[in-house]
Batch of 4 targets.
Target 1
Amino acid sequence: MVGKFETNKDLVQELTSSGARHVGKIATIITGTVSEVTHEIGEWITDAIEMREAAAAARQDAAAARQDEHAAGEDGPDTHPREATDPTRPRADVRYEGSSSATENGAAQPIIDADVEYIDPHE
């Protein structure tokens, strides 16, 4: 026959073991959740950085196009704005639909693969 002391010892042992398993499972859940949240926040910040860089590239392209238009008005056609800009800076990826796809005037439609963020310079 098992005595009261041994019964209580077994109960405490099982409760402790069960508690440790549950705490471990909860810690695993929390660790996984923190990891996933951190990953999503990092992705979100990366998206914001890429949008800012794309907006800066678009502003530089527009400035280069204005300079080329101004120069073309004085001296005739100049180099294309993409050729005149710094090749190391980030740019939006511009593709054109297939040659069979054209607008009303026959020019191919550009497809710009970029997210653009408008940044107020006064902020």
Target 2
Amino acid sequence: MPGTAEVPGTCIRVMRAPWLTRFLFPVGMLAVVTLFVARMPVVPLAQVFPTLTPSPSATAVPPTSTPTPTPVPTSTPTPTPTPVPTPTLIPTPTPGPLPDFAEVPILMYHYVEDLPPHADRIRRDLTVRPEMFEAQLQYLAQAGYQTITLTDLYLHLTEGRPLPEKPVILTFDDGYRDAYTVVFPLLQKYGFVGTFFVLATPADYGSPRYLDWGMMKEMADAGMEIQGHGRDHVDLRGRSYEFLVYQILGIKEAVEYHTGRPVRFFCYPSGHYDASVIAVVRSAGYWGAVTTAYGRIHTRENLYTLQRIRIRGSDTLESFIAKVEGR
């Protein structure tokens, strides 16, 4: 029967399938090969594939490069400095020993102008006529007096700075307008300096009877000393601390602001003061203060109560000379 086969010695027929033959042949071959391999002796892998010793790699030689030249900085020429001439130093005189006192007349003026009509006794006493004032300046110049300032006197007493042989200090109270129109030109004419105690409130309001700030600055720039007399001309005794600061420190700051120069001395209005007034004057940075008390001897101990010599409207040239010379 096609497609069948008889098993020998039996009555059994088996169907013959071509696809089965194709399947069983490869399987049988695989079994034979497996059996053959299993019977082969085991050979170490090292004998089959001997270990290869790697040849040493040649060290790579970097390509020879041409060295880059280091740039040389271009030198900047150093400018030759222009020689500065060395100033000739003027030697400062060596201060001597501190003096125990200084005898210097500090003259006190108020008005220097012609008397107004109907002037009362006080006004006449406080007013020196311009021609008499010039005669007094002429005498001082001819007699060899040299005007100094309160600053000069202070430095003499505290540092031993020398004074001229015949010193005199000219002071002018209240800052009246004639200090600019009469006194200032005459002082310049004779090469003298003066100390002017001024008020702030009249200057602030432009009172025509008093110096204004522009006049004060012009005088200060010319070498005159502009010092403090209070913001107002009032008695300072028995006042509160705040009021004293307003008057005493206020005038100092105002004058320094408008003139650009330091204010170092104070004049007690009408010569009145007490311990509280002196304490505020000290604390405000003043170096000293003047009174209306008569005297010509000054010490370090009385710098805040400096005495002066009042020049009156009734003084003749002879009485003026006697006051200056201490007779």
Target 3
Amino acid sequence: MSTIKKLYTSVLPHVYAFFGRTCLPYFPSKISIESGNLCNLRCPLCPTGQQDKSAKKGFISFDLFKKVIDEIGQHLTMIRLYNWGEPTLNKDLLRMIQYAKERDIDIKISTNLSMKMEDDQIEALLKAGLEKIYISCNGASSETYLKYHVGGDFGLVMDNMKRLVQKKREIPGCHTKFVWLFHIFKHNEHEIETAKELAQIIGIKIKISKMRPDMGKEIFETTQKALERDKAWIPDNSEYTVVSTKRKKRIGCMLPWTETMINWDGSILPCCAVYSEKHAFGNILENSFKTIWNNEKYIAARKEILGMKNDKQTICHICKRSGYLHGG
């Protein structure tokens, strides 16, 4: 997609939201598609790690992924192929990446990288054409790492990072970017500088990120309530707590104008923070995306965010009452 078209698709939603439009003549250019909501780890602030059963479990099939791309792929510039699970567990992952890349759509994944990988698996992953691989690792030592990534293997993660970086050097024309995501909690904030040094040695970019409270509950409660419950995890340095200090904008959330989230089972949600399909705005296996994108639930959500009168309640109404995600 040309730079001009990318700019156009990024500006258009803001124009429509600014003028109070709730029925949209365009499709989002960036979306999230859940590769699956199963994981090999048991991270304590993640509903998948908690083995929360309020959402159905499974992996997206290649046929469903293809259906999404065939319907709206011509409008897409980027897909985040992850959400509530470990993408590399999906046996069709490479096939899905390749199908999207053939249509000039960038793909990003986020992985814990705590699994044994053969050399040919690493090579295939890089040759598939991923735009970016995020690696979630909240520790710079095995002891600290295991406090959050329960069931993981710190040494294995470090080794896999090094192998990815080395293999990329060996593959001509490989442009996949790697980002080590290091979320700050009370138990690991003392390792920030160590993590940065490790990243430099490995040759990988590191992103120091704020912690998130219990991710399955965060849109159903105020941030202050969440932080009170999860205070054992909150870092001492307030710079790394998730409460936003930014001035609230007139439009509290732009996501119903800019993006969408498609779960592994085809259910469509307004954003990636919603865990269960019971809050879905529709299912692409039952209706076209075109129909769902402007159905009564999506329009009601947009009206609620804009402060317009409407009679239908959605998950966006709950999120707004809670002060929007991380809004305080």
Target 4
Amino acid sequence: MNHMRLSGIPKRISFVVFVLLISLPCFGQDYLQPNEEVILSFRTKNNKQMYLVKDKSNRYISYRFGTKDKIELKYPASGTNSWEKFKYSSYLRGGGITNEGMDLNYVYFTNGDFQYIIYQTYYAVGNKRKIGLKVINLKTNKTTDIEGNPKTATGTLVDFRDNQLLEIGDELFD
């Protein structure tokens, strides 16, 4: 029987290279677990990433934000009662440019002294799409807007209008 062999490369080195290649995915952070699906994800203009995910069986929802190598904030820390910790609000006005149509969608939560607002908006006038994250310091009322790159977006917040998984709030953040 003829065995294929990489010419000039000893078996030991071939094995080490193989082990390193299959272990590479373990070095980064897992923003999405095998039992989860993306609700919305995007990269920011500073190359960070935001993931809003849920368990495929709707057992929990989770927010994750950070670099490709490190999750800087995961909320909530556990999935227990996680759906109760988030709210969704929206505003929809059709009619296109003539009626200054808009589609505003927000998922938000509070963690300590900060409120986090994930936003996905569209304005017909100017055909403007925006996606990102606003962080409001509740003590100082200072807002930081972390803009996302719409071209990197996967998923949508719009599905929360009808799925009854999140409490519907009435706050609009634009």
